[in-house]
Design goal:
The complex is a heterotrimer.
Chain A (H helix, E strand, L loop, with lengths): L1 E13 L7 H8 L2 E14 L4 E5 L6 H8 L7 E6 L8 H7 E5 L11 H11 L4 H15 L14 H13 L5 E5 L7 H18 L2 E5 L3 H7 L2 E6 L2 E6 L1 H7 L4 E11 L9 E3 L4 E6 L6 H9 L2 E9 L3 H11 L2
Parallel strand pairs in A: 3-7, 3-8, 5-6, 6-7
Antiparallel strand pairs in A: 1-2, 1-4, 8-9, 10-12, 10-13, 11-12
Chain B lengths: L1 H15 L2 H29 L1 E2 L2 E2 H21 L1 H4 L2 H5 L3 H4 L6 H8 L6 H20 L5 H32 L6 H11 L9 H8 L9 H7 L8 H30 L2
Antiparallel strand pairs in B: 1-2
Helix pairs in contact in B: 2-3, 2-8, 3-8, 3-9, 9-10, 9-13, 12-13
Chain C lengths: L1 H13 L4 H26 L10 H14 L13 H7 L1 H7 L4 H32 L9 H24 L8 H14 L13 H6 L8 H7 L6 H31 L2
Classes of the chains: A alpha/beta, B mainly alpha, C mainly alpha.
């Protein structure tokens, strides 16, 4: 559904002079420098794919989305969305995609929410019957009925995001681009939107690409993960594969009650005598925690046991550091 | 077109949400323009003529200038305030739609409150033509030519605005530039061009061709030494300028596609 | 006090970031200046006079008011953007700070004024004067001219402050801006020296707060200082300061009662 081949985009930055008359000298003699924002980016997303596109701020996420949606033209490489080039067939591609920028609304600020939907339907030439059908489904799923007649400026952030999602779907696009759709929302609102997106992807086979900083979005939604750093792709695959490839140690934490025979603790154990807590790292892929628990249990009376699994943040952070 | 009317209605609806503020602004724009003219009238009542043109003749220039300015602000205000699109990256959103950005800009906001300036322009025009008629001048040519005058004038103002907006693709900020490309020249167009120093007149006839909005045709219409063909020059210039501005705009969008904001 | 001076300085310095934009605006201002000068020269010609001023004097007058336009509220951010603060709610934080709300904007406003005077008023005045020449100025009037300019700048600040604080009571300050713009444009002597306004408008405008913005300072420059030209602006500066402080108090009370 979406294919990127060797996408590259440069930004041109004027080299700043420093010192006396810096501005004037920059103006007269400043050289333009090419700084890559996205470099040699290739990936493919099948129909019905649900991709998390992640990376730190300034890694090139937005630039990529802008190239996929036809806002920016790549300096090198090719993009295809639904078999068409967003660069050469911008308007045709626009009909096939829905875009939501989490930080900005596409709705008419002063009008009742419903009016924005009607205007967008007219803009995309959506037939009345299709419009009614789409509204029937999405307004129900997203719970829009309670505020359809409220002006957009009076909506809460969560309501506005739901309305924005509905707005992006009215023309029945095959592909959805969501730039940080859960930013700034509370847990309930996030869960509602996640549920909706999962449903949309599974039932209607919509292809979805989302960027996010929220790891729960990724863990709960994404079938495919593309990680970008410094404009380059550093990972492309499933979350499980990622966990398997970059194994971070799980941690076994045992809290004791009463005396502890510290000398008997297995090698590598960190022990905090004040809290009477022992921590031991191990690799789930290689060892099972049971023998370790037995070994620790032999050292004293156990009060509590916890196994801490590595978080996706930790894995990705490790990758960021590695790719630096 | 159906879409356009829908959008027009929507913008009226959204502006009517603040009924009081809306009514107030309409009236204020009327008063503002009326007072602008009143100040000049104060001079003219004392001295009869500016550069040989009397109160009603200057009134005609004034009213045409304010009519075309108001039309532009009513129908293409988003072009006038294009800075918000370049500054906040809102232009991106326009490019994700299956409609050309210029059409979207036109439909984003009909700025109804500037309609006050238009109404005031109509009143002022009636006053000027009535006065000229009373003096025994023939006003039929001016009346017949009025639609052409307004359309070509509005087209010139729009083209200047579009070119200024396009500059925003490079400079991001354009509001300060508008003093030079919009406010200043349109005020200048409200007076006979020959009172200005030569270099300024040169600018107003070429780079920022507001001289063709009202001054050039009125040289013929009010028998100020103009020839009949002057009437053709204004629409011609308007089309040329609009064509150039559109090309520049397209070029600007191309640039935007390759660099973003 | 140190805080206000720092704010003044920081506002002044921050303007340098936008000097390209300011330059573009100066260009527009020059067009206006040449236009008004041309209107007067076209009207007066070599022979006619207004208030005893010929076309030279009117040229000097127009060049001067075009320069000090940048001390008016038009060269300040609209209503100091108090409207935005009210809308986003950050106004409560501002009101909480241990500095005077009024003093804060006073320092802020004069930071703008200082920059605008040096890099906009003076160049625009000088460039226009290259075309119309300079009046012979009696240096004995210099202190008076400086005083008049201070009045003008302060009245410019006040008018912008009033536009801004309207936001505490109404949704938008746009209407207040338009009213203020219209009043200043008409009654400050920006295009027309006030005594030639028709009918009762002339005497009325001469005692209005607007006269101190353009007309009275211009009269000092042209060598015609009057006692009224000092007393009227002085009176308004004092009276409107009291009003502004009262209004600020009322705004604070309103915020405390209703929340941000």
């Amino acid at each position: 559904m979406i294919r990127a081949e060797g996408l590259t985009k440069y930004y041109h930055v004027t080299e700043r002079k420093s010192g006396r008359f810096a501005t004037l000298r920059t103006f007269v003699a400043g050289r333009m420098q090419k700084v890559p924002a996205v470099q040699e980016m290739s990936f493919e997303i099948p129909k019905g794919g649900f991709v998390g596109y992640i990376g730190p701020n300034g890694a090139g996420k937005s630039t990529t989305i802008k190239m996929l949606t036809g806002i920016l033209h790549p300096d090198e490489g090719r993009v295809e969305v639904g078999g068409m080039s967003p660069q050469n067939q911008r308007k045709e591609v626009a009909r096939k995609i829905g875009v939501v920028f989490g930080q900005r609304t596409q709705l008419w600020w002063d009008l009742p929410t419903r009016d924005s939907f009607e205007l967008l339907a007219a803009m995309y030439n959506v037939q009345a019957a299709d419009y009614d059908k789409a509204m029937g489904v999405y307004a129900e799923l997203l719970g829009l009925h309670e505020f359809l007649d409220t002006p957009v400026r009076k909506l809460s952030l969560g309501q506005r995001m739901r309305a924005d999602l509905c707005a992006a779907l009215l023309h029945d696009p095959d592909v959805l681009f969501l730039d940080e759709p859960t930013i700034g929302l509370d847990v309930t609102a996030k869960n509602r939107i996640r549920g909706f997106l999962r449903d949309l992807n599974e039932r209607e086979q919509k292809t979805i690409l989302l960027t996010t900083h929220d790891m729960d979005d990724i863990e709960q939604l994404c079938k495919q993960l593309i990680i970008i750093n410094h404009g380059k792709k550093v990972y492309d695959g499933t979350l499980e594969e990622l966990r398997a490839t970059y194994p971070l140690p799980s941690v076994l934490e045992v809290e004791f009650h009463g005396d502890v025979q510290e000398l008997l603790l297995p090698a590598g154990t960190q022990y905090d005598p004040e809290r009477r807590v022992a921590r031991l790292s191990f690799d789930k892929q290689v060892t099972s925690p049971m023998p370790l628990i037995d070994a620790l249990g032999a050292c004293g009376e156990v009060r509590d046991i916890q196994v801490l699994t590595p978080k996706i943040e930790d894995i990705i952070e490790g990758m960021y550091i590695a790719s630096r | 077109m159906a879409l356009y009317w829908k959008l027009v209605k929507a913008s009226l609806k959204s502006q009517l949400q603040y009924k009081l503020a809306f009514a107030f602004e309409v009236v204020m724009f009327m008063i503002m323009q009326a007072l602008d003219f009143l100040l000049v009238a104060a001079i003219l009542l004392k001295f009869d003529t500016v550069g040989g043109w009397d109160l009603y003749e200057v009134g005609y220039l004034f009213s045409i200038a304010s009519l075309v300015r108001s039309l532009y602000r009513v129908f293409a205000n988003e072009i006038h305030s294009f800075e918000k699109y370049t500054k906040n990256g809102e232009f991106d959103q326009l490019l994700t739609r299956p409609v050309s950005p210029l059409v979207l800009l036109f439909s984003r906001g009909i700025n109804w409150n500037q309609i006050g300036g238009f109404l005031q322009g109509v009143l002022m025009l009636m006053f000027a033509l009535w006065g000229l008629h009373e003096q025994g001048a023939s006003i039929w040519a001016a009346l017949l030519y009025l639609p052409v005058s307004i359309l070509s004038g509005a087209l010139i103002v729009f083209s200047l605005g579009l070119a200024t907006a396009t500059i925003g693709f490079w400079t991001v900020k354009i509001n300060e530039l508008l003093a030079f490309t919009h406010y200043g020249p349109l005020n200048a167009a409200s007076y006979p061009m020959h009172i200005y120093p030569g270099w300024l007149r040169g600018v107003l006839f070429t780079l920022i061709p507001v001289a063709f909005i009202a001054y050039v045709p009125s040289l013929y219409l009010f028998d100020k030494g103009g020839a009949l063909w002057y009437l053709l020059v204004s629409p011609l210039i308007a089309f040329v300028v609009a064509g150039l501005a559109l090309r520049f705009w397209k070029f600007g969008i191309k640039h935007y596609h390759s660099t973003g904001s | 006090m140190q805080f206000y001076l720092m704010l003044f300085r920081k506002t002044y310095v921050r303007n340098f970031q936008y000097r390209m934009a300011a330059m573009a605006n100066n260009l527009g201002s020059l067009v206006f200046g040449f236009m008004y000068i041309a209107i007067w020269q076209g009207t007066l010609g070599p022979e006619r006079h207004v208030l005893g001023f010929g076309q030279d004097e009117m040229g000097w007058y127009m060049a001067f008011v075009q320069g000090i336009f940048f001390l008016s509220f038009m060269a300040l951010p609209r209503g100091f953007e108090i409207e935005e603060s009210v809308r986003t709610g950050s106004i409560s934080l501002q009101m909480m700070r241990p500095v005077s709300f009024y003093g804060y904007y006073l320092a802020h406003g004069f930071g703008y004024h200082a920059y605008n005077f040096l890099f906009r008023s003076i160049p625009v005045y000088l460039i226009l004067s290259l075309f119309v020449g300079f009046p012979s100025f009696d240096m004995a009037n210099l202190p008076l001219l400086v005083l008049s300019l201070l009045f003008s700048a302060y009245l410019g600040f006040l008018s912008n402050y009033f536009v801004g604080v309207v936001a505490f009571w109404t949704n938008s300050t746009r209407w207040a801006f338009l009213v203020m713009y219209t009043l200043i444009n008409t009654f400050s002597g920006f295009l027309v020296p006030l005594p030639i306004l028709p009918g009762f408008l002339a005497p009325l405008s001469l005692v209005s707060p607007f006269a101190g913005m353009n007309y009275y300072p211009a009269m000092v420059l042209l060598g015609r200082p009057t006692l009224l030209g000092v007393l009227v602006p002085l009176f308004w500066c004092v009276a409107l300061t009291i009003v502004a402080l009262r209004v600020t108090q009322a705004a604070r009370r309103k915020l405390e009662v209703q929340g941000g």
